[in-house]
């Protein structure tokens, strides 16, 4: 019971810190990019370009952060990310010229590379090794509300006091809330085995060539799904309108995605808890193409089904990104390996708003065939993979 209480405390602390990290970084430009751009004499698109560059920088820094977590645990890395977020947000608030705003987003990119889900998952694996799967689900349940908290709070602060004050507030929250929470995490986890153990706790596929192919396959799957998720986040309402939904209906469907993500994570925590993560990933990857085909073939009446399916699939995939590499390849070297697996996805995420925007301008609603096709390709890759662990909890 005492052990369960400690683990629950870790999940609560890390989940709350992750909610703050996502709300003040990934979800910040949607609300503050335009006033930020006007203040320094730029267009909104230029701020989003800086945000894309920050995502690319996060992809580069991720493997280094993961390697440090493997060696020293997540506590110092996550705490350092809070300082990076606070510095970046403070510099944003002080920015009067494009150059200083660009530097601020560079600091945010460094902090995102060391402070978002990848680092949190690696921290849990360092602390609890093969038992981390349920805890990964736990922090995604809490942090799944990051947009629900972040968008309204950023908007309210900007309206009441201004966008600079909103940035100052987020910076203060990192120092007063996020930093103490991450410093409260245990210093050390379970001792890592000198070599991966046999049986169910290690992948049967230990040959370097086979593991390399599996890693490439997973990296492709995560990258394709990351592209889809970011494209829908950036263009979802506009896409739905192009397919026949009115503005109110399109916004309502888009608003369902967040709750659907959390509902799917609850479902994973309960009904799918004993299912191998590869099966969960297949189910998650199927969701967007299934919703996309329904919307393309049936039109506006299928809008609600599309929103629910896309949100549920996206919610499950977040867990898969943490749990599947753990089961497939084991806990040894998890942090660096997982960051490498997700790095290509970071690059595609940075390009997704622009590329899918071009497709939407050229093909209108038929651009949904692009994301649907990419989802089916990711599903095909997963279907060709085999679970290399004899038990879901391994």
Automatic annotation (TrEMBL):
Keywords of the record: Cell membrane, Membrane, Transmembrane, Transmembrane helix
Transmembrane segments: 47-65, 77-95, 101-127, 139-162, 168-185, 214-234, 240-262, 283-309, 366-383
Protein's UniProt keywords contain Cell membrane: yes
Cellular localization per UniProt: Cell membrane
GO molecular function: transmembrane transporter activity
Membrane topology value: Multi-pass membrane protein
Principal subcellular localization: membrane
GO CC, alphabetical: plasma membrane
Signal peptide: none
InterPro entries tied to this protein: MFS, MFS_dom, MFS_Efflux_Transporters, MFS_trans_sf
Domain Major facilitator superfamily (MFS) profile: start-end pairs: 10-390
Superkingdom, natural source: Bacteria
Stated name of the protein: Putative MFS family arabinose efflux permease
Organism: Roseateles asaccharophilus
């Amino acid at each position: 019971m005492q052990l369960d209480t400690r683990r629950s405390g870790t999940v609560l602390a890390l989940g709350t810190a992750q909610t703050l990290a996502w709300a003040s970084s990934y979800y910040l430009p949607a609300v503050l990019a335009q006033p930020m751009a006007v203040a320094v004499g730029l267009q909104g698109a230029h701020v989003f370009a800086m945000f894309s560059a920050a995502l690319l920088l996060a992809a580069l820094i991720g493997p280094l952060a993961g390697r440090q977590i493997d060696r020293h645990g997540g506590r110092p890395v996550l705490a350092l990310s809070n300082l990076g977020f606070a510095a970046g947000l403070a510099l944003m608030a002080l920015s009067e010229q494009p150059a200083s705003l660009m530097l601020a987003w560079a600091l945010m990119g460094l902090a995102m590379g060391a402070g978002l889900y990848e680092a949190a998952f690696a921290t849990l694996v360092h602390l609890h090794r093969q038992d981390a799967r349920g805890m990964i689900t736990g922090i995604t349940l809490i942090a799944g509300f990051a947009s629900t908290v972040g968008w309204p709070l950023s908007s309210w602060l900007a309206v009441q006091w201004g966008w600079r004050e909103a940035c100052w507030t987020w910076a203060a929250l990192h120092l007063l809330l996020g930093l103490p929470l991450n410093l409260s995490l245990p210093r050390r986890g379970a001792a890592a085995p000198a070599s991966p153990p046999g049986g169910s706790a290690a992948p049967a596929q230990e040959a370097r060539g086979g593991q390399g192919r599996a890693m490439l396959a997973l990296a492709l799957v995560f990258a394709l799904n990351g592209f889809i998720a970011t494209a829908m986040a950036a263009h979802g309402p506009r896409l739905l309108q192009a397919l026949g939904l009115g503005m109110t209906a399109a916004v309502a469907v888009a608003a369902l995605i967040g709750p659907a993500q959390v509902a799917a994570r609850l479902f994973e925590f309960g009904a799918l808890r004993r299912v191998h993560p590869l099966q969960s990933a297949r189910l998650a990857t199927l969701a967007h193409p299934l919703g996309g085909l329904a919307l393309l073939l049936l039109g506006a009446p299928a809008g609600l089904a599309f929103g629910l399916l896309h949100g549920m699939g996206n919610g499950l995939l977040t867990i898969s990104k943490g749990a599947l590499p753990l089961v497939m390849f084991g806990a040894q070297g998890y942090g660096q390996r997982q960051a490498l697996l997700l790095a290509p996805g970071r690059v595609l995420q940075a390009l997704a708003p622009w590329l899918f925007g071009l497709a939407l301008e050229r093909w209108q609603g038929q651009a949904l065939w692009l994301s649907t096709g990419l989802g089916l390709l990711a599903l095909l890759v997963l279907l060709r993979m085999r679970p290399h662990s004899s038990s879901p909890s391994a």
